[in-house]
Design a protein that fits this description.
With 357 residues, the chain is an alpha/beta fold. The chain is 35% helix and 20% strand. The chain has a nine-stranded mixed beta sheet with strand order 1-2-3-5-4-6-7-8-9, sandwiched between helices. α7 crosses α8. It is globular and about 75 Å long.
């Protein structure tokens, strides 16, 4: 232990945290400071390009997006079909499609992409595959099955395994119901990629597929997720303007408190260079004026040491962009006295208002 009066220490250890906090104070250099809609449009064009580059979109290889249908299950009011989409060379993404049975021939419904978070199971917990181990626990603990909520309201829901999760686990975590984000970052960062970037890119390719479906309205594609699924939904909407409405639940806060100081979270939260440009409110500002709702639990430990104060600061950053865009009603913050879980009481009506009216 080193305890010298002139040497700053952390319980006798010479850590890098203070330096990282200092560097963060010089970061977030891409914040929107304009005052007009033209300023916002210019800022979004420039910063969206930076975000896509940080996520590694320049490194991804386009390919023929082969599609495979594996099986289908009758779930009463809807069918759940399992499919696989090729998103890059050698890369395949399994996903469920939850489709209401009352879709008429020639009818185009709104659709919602529901990425998974870090729970017992991945797409199975989102798509309410109740017979799979761990799913009922996820449903009870965090209401992870919001895709079923949407399909019951008439949406066609798409529930993919994020890269590194579920049936996409790398060798070190296969069969353990653990994510492989650490392995993805270790392999990808030296090649100009990141786990988050690869996961978001897969969802962009999923949008490409959704746009080809005769039962989905290409102008009413949305995304909604809890925890890491909320992160993926928000980043997807930030980089791809085809997303008309978005929800992040349990994932909206200042990253200094919640991810830099609390630096034991999953590797998918960490992208080289990201915090030099963006905090979370800045990412969400790229979505304006498209519809965006944030759902927060006041008891959610993910919010950071200062709790809701750390959330509200980011909400204000995003709200300013919507004010400048003359669309304040398209940004909503739904707050509930709960922990880290999906509530949805405001989310589904908000989606209906922006996608069905």
């Amino acid at each position: 232990m080193i305890r010298h009066p002139q040497i700053p220490h952390d319980n006798g250890y010479l850590t890098s945290l203070r330096q990282m906090e200092h560097l963060f104070s010089q970061g977030c250099q891409s914040r929107f400071n304009g005052t007009t809609m033209a300023d916002l449009a210019t800022w979004q064009t420039e910063k969206r390009a930076i975000l896509r580059d940080l996520l590694g979109f320049h490194a991804f290889e386009d390919c023929e997006n082969r599609l495979y249908t594996l099986d289908s299950e009758d779930c009463g009011a809807y069918t759940r079909t399992k499919m696989v989409l090729q998103t890059e060379a050698f890369v395949y993404m399994p996903f469920f499609v939850l489709r209401p049975k009352d879709v008429a021939t020639g009818e185009r419904r709104p659709s919602v992409i529901c990425p998974n978070g870090h729970f017992n199971r991945a797409k199975e917990s989102v798509a309410a595959v109740r017979h799979e181990p761990g799913v009922l626990e996820d449903m009870a603990d965090a209401h992870t099955h919001h895709a079923e909520d949407f399909v019951q309201r008439g949406y066609i829901a798409f529930c993919p395994d994020a890269r590194g999760f579920g049936e996409r686990a790398e060798r070190a975590t296969q069969g353990k119901y653990e994510c492989s984000c650490t392995q993805l970052n270790r392999m990808g960062i030296p090649l100009g990629r990141s786990a988050l970037g690869m996961q978001v890119y897969d969802l962009v390719k999923l949008i490409d597929y959704i746009q080809t479906r005769e039962d989905c309205d290409p102008a009413r594609i949305s995304a909604a997720g809890l925890s890491g699924g909320g992160m993926l939904s928000m980043y997807l909407a930030a980089v791809d303007t085809r997303v008309a409405c978005t929800c992040t639940s349990g994932y909206f806060f200042g990253v200094l408190e919640s991810r830099l100081r609390r630096n034991t979270h999953c590797d998918c939260n960490y992208v080289p260079g990201m915090w030099r440009h963006f905090d979370m409110g800045d990412i969400a500002a790229l979505i304006a004026p498209r519809a965006f709702i944030v759902e927060t639990g006041t008891q959610d430990d993910s919010n950071g040491d200062s709790g809701m104060e750390n959330v509200y600061a980011q909400v204000q950053i995003t709200a300013r962009a919507y004010q400048v865009a003359n669309a304040p009603e398209r940004f909503k913050h739904s707050v509930h006295d709960v922990g880290h879980r999906w509530v949805g009481t405001d989310v589904c009506p908000f989606f209906d208002e922006n996608l069905k009216s």
